[in-house]
Design goal:
alpha/beta; 7-stranded mixed sheet; 5-stranded parallel sheet; 35% helix; binds NADP nicotinamide-adenine-dinucleotide phosphate
Length: 505
């Protein structure tokens, strides 16, 4: 069994006391253990502030971009090893594990490419300068500078590589040192990535630390210059947001949480058309990829009443050929859920949804491992708009006239996908659902190579209001703002121009 270690204050620490066991979710075989007991978390954060921050800031944007490229290269060189860890520890099929690892590498490279465009100045300008008085000399300019604290990243279990990389890429490029805490149950992938970075001496001392095991009092050590980016359940997010030191020190917090993502089929879409087939394909992919354990997965399938029966039958037919099994076997199309508690939660969630099971069953599959079949619920109760069931589960909901109202009752989501070619319907629906979402995906069969609504792209923002946590990550240069302080400079125009000498993000 592998003993996972935290990397803090420049060295590896196995922790003390009782250890948590990480298993293979397909076989329940123990794989590794982790403990954060005995790790001095306050000292780790101080180490980042004193060593990592100054070293990163001294490098400038292009220098930091080169570091991101080096991390991506190291991951690329060990890609197969990382994919195999995702299969063993995450219950991922090979394709699921590639989605995670390649998504991580792609995001690091996207930010590495952005870096040289930001110039070499110590600060970024934010928007145009503004003439403040009658004379053009009296001038204002907003600028952005890296915060002097540490970026603490707390990640969910479902994307151990991408979750680590998408946060680290942005923070490191902005010039903030990172302390990353992967979810314990699937920490082997992030642990190996951290080992690669440390073994390759890629980053300056203190620029990246890793905490494996329980978070303990980590959040309580955060102060006014630190930031916290959290991804996980809404319940944990709520708890963290309300912690006294977070409130007292106005710690900047970004929360990425639950989401009841909807896919809407327009009333113009005829069964068997290319648009209809695309819609079916993307619903099935979202239900089964990573066994539905994607924050962006379609949970509510909203179709016109006139085609609901046909959609139900077609989805059931497509789900019937999805082979559920050990992801180590090549013919498997869907692996298990990540943990016993995820399986129990998903099964209980299906009972709470009510309605009728149009496909699948909430009974566990097999006697070992955390397997569940894909499940399509028809006519669920109102709870479908209130509770995310995190697994291969979606609900079919029929509308008569106003799908946007149904979508909005989910109270805030990461992504809503709309499939229609009726411009009037698109105009009205986009305008109505946009305030409730961070992203709207407009499905179209002529868009080649689209990865579908479930894939988060580094160029576009990821996050959403309300239930989705109210956060925003990525979005190309937009993502940097979380790690930078915006300051208004007010004074003589030539003086300000000399100070900034900078490019806009
Ligand atoms: P979780 O139980 O909330 O855990 C998330 C992370 O928080 C883990 O690293 C966990 O550590 C840590 N944590 C737990 N209690 C904490 C505390 N008191 N202080 C600091 N950290 C704490 O969520 P999960 O089960 O891993 O993830 C599933 C959920 O994440 C789903 O609801 C999914 O929708 C959501 N998700 C959202 C996004 C998004 O971008 N919006 C992306 C992926 C997943 P331990 O593992 O050590 O307990």
């Amino acid at each position: 069994m592998i003993e996972l270690r935290s990397y803090v204050c420049g060295s590896w620490s196995a922790g003390t006391g009782a250890r948590q066991t990480l298993v293979n979710p397909a076989t329940e075989a123990p794989l590794a253990s982790a403990s954060s007991e005995g790790v001095d978390l306050g000292a780790a954060l101080q180490y980042a502030r004193e060593k990592g921050g100054p070293a990163l800031r001294a490098l400038g944007f292009a220098g930091r971009g080169a570091l991101l490229r080096a991390i991506a290269d190291a991951m690329q060189s060990s890609r197969d090893e990382l994919i195999n860890l995702g299969i063993a520890n995450g219950g991922n099929t090979r394709s699921d594990a590639k989605f995670d690892v390649d998504g991580a590498i792609g995001t690091l490279l996207a930010y590495a490419e952005l870096a040289p465009t930001l110039g070499e100045a110590r600060m970024l300008t934010d928007g145009e300068g503004i003439q403040l008085g009658r004379s053009p000399r009296f001038h204002g300019q907003h600028v952005l500078t890296p915060r002097r604290g540490v970026a603490v990243h707390v990640n969910a279990f479902n994307f151990p590589a991408w979750g680590f990389a998408e946060k680290a890429a942005v923070a490191l490029l902005a010039g903030m040192p990172v302390l990353s805490k992967p979810a314990t149950s699937s920490a082997m992938v992030a642990h190996r990535i951290a080992e690669l970075i440390v073994e390759g001496k890629i980053l300056p001392d203190g620029a990246l630390q890793l905490l494996v095991g329980r978070p303990r009092d980590l959040i309580e050590h955060l102060g006014a210059q630190d930031v916290l980016a959290f991804t996980g359940s809404g319940d944990t997010g709520e708890l963290i947001r309300a912690m006294p030191n977070i409130i007292k020190h106005s710690v900047r917090v970004n929360i990425e949480a639950d989401s009841l993502n909807a896919a809407v089929l327009g009333p113009d879409v005829e069964p068997r058309s290319d648009m209809y087939e695309l819609f079916l394909k993307e619903v099935v992919r979202d239900m089964t990829q990573k066994a539905g354990q994607k924050c962006t997965a379609i949970r509510r399938v909203i179709v016109h009443g006139g085609v609901a029966e046909e959609v139900r039958n077609d989805l059931a037919e497509l789900l019937a050929v999805v082979k559920v099994g050990d992801p180590a076997e090549e013919e498997t199309k869907m692996g298990p859920l990540a943990t016993a508690s995820q399986l129990a939660d998903a099964r209980e969630g299906v009972q709470r949804l009510g309605g009728k099971l149009a496909f699948g069953s909430a009974a566990p599959v097999g006697s070992k491992g955390f397997f569940l079949s894909p499940i399509l619920v028809e006519g669920p109760g109102a709870v479908v708009h209130e509770r995310e069931v995190f697994g291969p589960i979606a609900s079919l909901i029929a509308y008569k006239e106003d799908p946007a109202r149904i979508v909005a009752s989910g109270n805030g989501g990461l992504v809503c996908s709309i499939y229609s070619e009726d411009q009037e319907f698109l105009d009205a629906t986009v305008a109505e659902v946009a305030p409730f979402h961070g992203r709207i995906y407009l499905g179209h069969p002529k868009v080649e190579l689209s990865p579908g609504p479930g894939t988060v792209l580094p160029q576009l923002v990821h996050g959403g209001p309300g239930r989705a946590g109210g956060g925003e990550e990525l979005g190309g240069p937009r993502g940097l703002a979380f790690y930078l302080q915006r300051t208004a400079l007010e004074g003589s125009r030539p003086v300000i121009a000399k100070i900034t000498g900078a490019k806009q993000p």
